[in-house]
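queue> pop job 88
queue> type: inverse folding (structure -> sequence)
queue> payload:
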């Protein structure tokens, strides 16, 4: 049996399926409620049930005290509805509302997606989750005090494993290790989430996403979040790479394009290989956007990738196409100064 939940004060509504917690259902439908451990131990997800009945689920007694239950409080990560509900909880809309944490994690899976791109999946300690907004990044804290940043490629509702896409920088302090010596089960330390590269939910402007190489990673998380939320906004993804093999997950946006009427995908190759027999768009990825749009004043644009691409996009979109400065949202993969 499924139940309808209304969040106050936002008025947002979502459906909780059989055997689903209130938090899991909210995240699945794209509503970001606060949480930490997701197993009734930390109290971060505590809110109030204004109307209706819940089963409070398994939780630690000092995390949700008897008197709090009497006041109508519940831990939404473990509570399940027994009727339709009205709950009171503040939805997270800005990065500053998400706590930054340091935690160990284990490399669960390493898979080469292209000659120089590695998919890394990380497992957090049992009973721990890292709350983040789709598109944000984490830092690896290395043993010598250095840190390296990588964007989170999964959306918040699918956070059992954290997914990263790493490009090999030959001789690079961290990625050389990843590509030549790292083994599954290695333990690393992460800090996060960080960054302001996340969807501005208050806007209803159509969105253009521009990704260069592994700049696809956070945009993948954002798009999967938007699809989960059943956003009606028009969305186009331009993904630029050198040759076809460098579009290391192209089948995914092609599949999204089949599934979602409001989404389209334009791959752009700067240096297609002869064997690619490429009939699609060529050149620099930001140039493809400039070629397709005379006026960007009504859009919101999310750009991620190498600093030169991000800078060229910002300059040309705002100076020659009327894009307002605050509608250009970007993460630039700058090198960390050691
Ligand atoms: C917010 C943020 C998010 C990021 N997200 C990702 C991500 O999702 N995926 C990803 O692959 N990277 C991402 N990066 C880049 C990443 O943090 C590292 O800078 C990169 O992986 C290189 O680290 P390294 O230790 O291997 O090389 P380093 O030891 O830092 O570099 C060694 C030398 O190689 C050169 N170099 C470094 N990086 C590059 C480069 N990209 N191209 C050419 N030469 C280079 C420099 O001259 C440098 O001195 C992100 C960066 C930032 C700031
Ligand atoms: S008690 Fe930790 S998220 Fe619910």
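queue> result:
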């Amino acid at each position: 049996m499924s139940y309808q939940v209304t969040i106050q004060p936002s008025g947002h509504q979502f459906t909780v399926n059989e055997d689903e917690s209130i938090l899991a259902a909210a995240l699945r439908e794209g509503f970001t409620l606060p949480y930490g451990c997701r197993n009734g131990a930390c109290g971060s997800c505590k809110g109030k049930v204004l109307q209706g009945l819940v089963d409070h689920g398994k939780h630690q007694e000092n995390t949700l005290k008897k008197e709090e239950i009497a006041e109508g409080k519940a831990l939404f990560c473990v509570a399940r509805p027994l009727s339709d509900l009205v709950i009171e909880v503040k939805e997270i809309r800005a990065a500053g509302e998400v706590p930054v944490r340091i935690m160990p994690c284990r490399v669960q899976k390493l898979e080469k997606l292209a000659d120089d791109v590695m998919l890394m999946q990380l497992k957090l300690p049992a009973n721990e989750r890292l709350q983040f907004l789709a598109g944000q990044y984490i830092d690896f804290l290395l043993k010598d005090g250095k840190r390296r940043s990588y964007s989170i490629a999964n959306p918040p509702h699918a956070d059992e494993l954290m997914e990263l896409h790493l490009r090999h920088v030959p001789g690079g302090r961290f990625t050389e290790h990843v590509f030549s010596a790292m083994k599954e089960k290695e333990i690393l330390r992460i800090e996060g989430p960080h960054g302001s590269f996340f969807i501005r939910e208050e806007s209803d402007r159509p969105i253009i996403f521009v990704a260069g190489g592994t700049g696809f990673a956070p945009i993948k998380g954002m798009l999967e979040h938007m699809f989960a939320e059943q956003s009606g906004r028009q969305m186009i993804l331009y993904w630029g790479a050198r040759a076809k093999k460098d579009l290391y997950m192209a089948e995914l946006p092609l599949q999204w394009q089949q599934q979602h009427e409001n989404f389209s995908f334009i791959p752009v190759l700067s240096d297609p290989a002869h064997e690619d027999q490429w009939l699609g768009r060529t050149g620099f990825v930001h140039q493809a956007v400039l070629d397709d749009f005379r006026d960007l004043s009504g859009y919101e644009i999310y750009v991620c990738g190498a600093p030169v691409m991000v800078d060229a996009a910002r300059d040309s979109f705002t100076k020659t196409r009327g894009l307002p400065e605050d509608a250009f949202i970007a993460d630039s993969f700058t090198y960390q100064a050691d």
